[in-house]
């Protein structure tokens, strides 16, 4: 299992071409942490948390993390993603629930994202107003899986990300 300090570097390795710098902590906020790195001389930021509950317990879920990264696009300023330690069932969707709100995420390999940028602001608002986020997914082998993420500290982590990468 990866340590919390190894996950930020792993995120960067999985996110694209070689980067100029290794991420540095921009702060820990209860169950969330903020990170910043430079690419092409510009700061890039993300926040992440690890699942506090994984079910069923008999399965090896690997590392299960939820990320929100800053992006520079007209439609949105963030991109949320779920990363797990196994492949999702192709063609399936991941369901994220926060209070009464639900979001469907599309899958590819070990990752899941919102299908449209327009949903990003709604997801972040729900995360800021919620206490936990429940995730339901299906593995490539057909196993139903579920995860719980604490949202304690997510608002402060988002604020730090926005401060570091306006």
TrEMBL record:
It comes from the Bacteria. Pfam families: IalB. InterPro entries: IalB_sf, Invasion_prot_B. The keyword Protein biosynthesis does not apply. Keywords: Signal. Residues 1-20 form the signal peptide. This is Invasion associated locus B (IalB) protein. It comes from Aquabacter spiritensis.
């Amino acid at each position: 299992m990866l340590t919390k300090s190894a996950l930020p570097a792993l995120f960067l390795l999985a996110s694209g071409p070689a980067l100029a710098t290794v991420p540095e902590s921009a702060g820990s906020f209860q169950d969330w942490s903020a990170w910043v790195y430079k690419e092409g001389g510009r700061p890039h930021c993300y926040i992440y948390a690890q699942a506090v509950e994984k079910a069923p317990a008999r399965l090896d879920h690997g590392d299960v993390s939820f990320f929100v990264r800053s992006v520079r696009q007209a439609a949105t300023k963030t991109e949320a993603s779920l990363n797990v330690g196994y492949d999702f069932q192709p063609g399936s969707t991941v369901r994220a629930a926060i209070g009464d709100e639900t979001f469907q995420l599309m899958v590819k390999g070990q990752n899941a994202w919102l299908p449209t940028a327009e949903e990003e602001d709604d997801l972040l608002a729900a995360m800021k107003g919620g206490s936990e986020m429940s995730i339901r997914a299906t593995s490539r082998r057909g196993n139903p899986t579920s995860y719980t993420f604490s949202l304690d500290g997510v608002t402060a982590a988002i604020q730090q990300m926005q401060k570091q990468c306006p």
